[in-house]
């Protein structure tokens, strides 16, 4: 069964929603984003988070020291990387589980994507996270991509599907792709904040698929 990650957790109310709905993963953003949290705030939120929900820290070109310190302080289950982090950088994060992103946009050629995924697949990562990019912006774009392109990519790691997912399109996405995890953020928000109703709808659709 596909697992669910709700990303961009930044309020006590968000944690309350998750504790009632129990997604498999909760994501906390530590890089430039409107959903970015400080380490202090993340510590407060994680203390309240149900222990059954795994903790994911999202980073993009953060210093290795910052990532390791954050991961250790919060006892992260997964470190999710969205930047230029290379194989050596990833080796230095052992023994944490790593999800490394690759971005797809309308200008991405199949060969470019294959090259990116081959490089990630050669690294010691648990999963490849496939996300959309818009105008060079990666992660948190709220825009989906053509999921059918994944049929032509040989991904030998677990697949995390992100980018523009919401309760209205998740069934279509799951018909095209059979990911290990689906990752949602803006798709379960209203007026820029997490919506209990939308998170509930999203999780139910994934688990009933």
UniProtKB/TrEMBL annotation:
Gene3D superfamilies linked to this entry: Aldolase class I
Pathway info: Amino-acid biosynthesis; L-tryptophan biosynthesis; L-tryptophan from chorismate: step 3/5
GO molecular function per UniProt: phosphoribosylanthranilate isomerase activity
One Pfam family recorded for the sequence: PRAI
InterPro entries, per database record: Aldolase_TIM, PRAI_dom, RibuloseP-bd_barrel, TrpF_fam
Classification via SUPFAM superfamilies: Ribulose-phoshate binding barrel
Alphabetically ordered keywords of this record: Amino-acid biosynthesis, Aromatic amino acid biosynthesis, Isomerase, Tryptophan biosynthesis
Domain of life: Bacteria
UniProt keyword Glycoprotein, yes or no: no
Signal peptide start-end: none
A Gene Ontology BP annotation from the UniProt entry: L-tryptophan biosynthetic process
E.C. numbers: 5.3.1.24
Transmembrane segments: none
Catalytic activity: N-(5-phospho-beta-D-ribosyl)anthranilate = 1-(2-carboxyphenylamino)-1-deoxy-D-ribulose 5-phosphate
Span of domain N-(5'phosphoribosyl) anthranilate isomerase (PRAI): 4-204
Similarity comment: Belongs to the TrpF family.
Name the UniProt record assigns to this protein: N-(5'-phosphoribosyl)anthranilate isomerase
Organism from which the protein derives: Clostridium ljungdahlii
Lineage of the organism: Bacteria, Bacillati, Bacillota, Clostridia, Eubacteriales
